[in-house]
Amino acid sequence: MSGFTIEENAGKGYSVLKCAGAIDYSNFNHGDDIVKKIIERGTVRLIFDLAEVSYISSSGWTVFLGNLRAAREKGGDITLANMRPEVKYTFKLLELDNMINYFDTAEEAVKRMA
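^ thats the sequence. predicted structure below, dont judge the formating
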């Protein structure tokens, strides 16, 4: 699998995290560390724009799920947006849509956060 990157774009009271590449066992810790630091500094309303993410393994989903509780305990939330069909298929197959919010576009997610 290829590497993956996260680019943060801070909004008013939230951050949009643009992700790119594939998230798997070899690199999910990198993403997890970034998200933990963002939450620790007090930004707890996070939108992950996944338009450029081609694949998420079972380990990769922990980047979002592993930080969901920390964000919610601090009054925030984690929302996913712009999932490619193959990523969204896995998301729904694992029934993660029962635990974490998602929107078809980052713009919709931002409106919800605002």
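The chain has a mean pLDDT of 94.
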